[in-house]
Design goal:
heterodimer; A: mainly alpha; B: mainly beta; Immunoglobulin-like; 3-stranded antiparallel β-sheet; 13% helix
């Protein structure tokens, strides 16, 4: 049981810090002061954090498979919440990736909208996470 | 690498290598309905249960014909089985861990609904 709890806990550590970074990275690029001149630094943090979110999310499933031979048993609401989380993570990862590839040519307003969208996607994912946690 | 630094990863490896040492502990008892009972679809049919989650369990899921219909966080109590379709129905109570994975501690009863 110790190893199982340790595996879940370490995965949760990565997932929690990933969640903090996807939201915090996007918000602090915009508020309380506009720091969009450091947009690429924030963007790299957010890219790595979304990657960590997806990897650790998958690792929860892998851990369950390893210990019990099955994935978590989710209700309809929890399944919908998981789908929202996955969609938000993929959208966030792709959006910040596009910004890192092409954002140098974008206007200041375009970069601001990108970080606002990233903050919204992170908020959506964190909200869905609560429904996933408590509707299962 | 000195001996102290060598032992820590070995201990962690051993810990992870033996995951199934306490599988099967815990118990679910379904007091009502009894196995083989006939239920009236128009009645308020209550599932009465008691659970010992064991060291790995956290809470309980209720299933009708393998479809999750409820989440129970009390280890002893009752749950209203809503709108049971007529016919033979398989009602299960399964202990799950914090990640909502069934840990193999469960009880199922088959009933007839008219």
């Amino acid at each position: 049981m110790g190893s199982e709890n340790l595996a879940y806990a370490l995965t949760q550590v990565v997932h929690n810090f990933g969640a903090a970074a996807v939201l915090g990275g996007a918000v602090f690029a915009l508020w309380p002061l506009d720091r969009l001149e450091y947009g690429r630094v924030f963007a790299w943090l957010i890219l790595v954090a979304w990657g960590a979110q997806m990897a650790s999310g998958a690792l929860f499933g892998v851990t369950s498979l390893y210990y019990y031979g099955e994935t978590p048993d989710l209700s309809h609401i929890a399944t919908a919440a998981l789908a929202v989380k996955i969609a938000a993570a993929i959208s966030g990862f792709v959006l910040v990736g596009i910004y890192l590839l092409r954002g140098r040519a974008w206007t200041q307003a375009g970069v601001r909208r990108t970080f606002q969208s990233l903050a919204a996607l992170a908020t959506l994912a964190l909200t869905a996470a609560a429904f996933l946690r408590w509707f299962s | 690498m000195n001996r102290k630094h060598f032992l820590a990863p070995v201990a962690l490896g051993l810990l992870l290598a033996f995951p199934a040492t306490s599988l099967g502990q815990g118990k679910v008892t379904i007091t009502s309905p009894a196995a083989g009972a006939s239920l009236d679809a128009m009645d308020e049919n209550k599932l009465v249960y008691e659970v010992d989650p064991g060291p790995r369990g956290d809470h309980v899921h209720v299933y009708v014909d393998n479809k999750e219909v409820g989440i129970l966080r009390k280890l002893k109590g009752s749950y209203l089985l809503e709108s049971l379709d007529s016919g033979k129905r398989n009602i299960c109570v399964k202990v799950v861990n914090k990640a909502h994975v069934p840990i193999g501690v469960e009880e199922c009863v088959q009933v007839s609904v008219k």
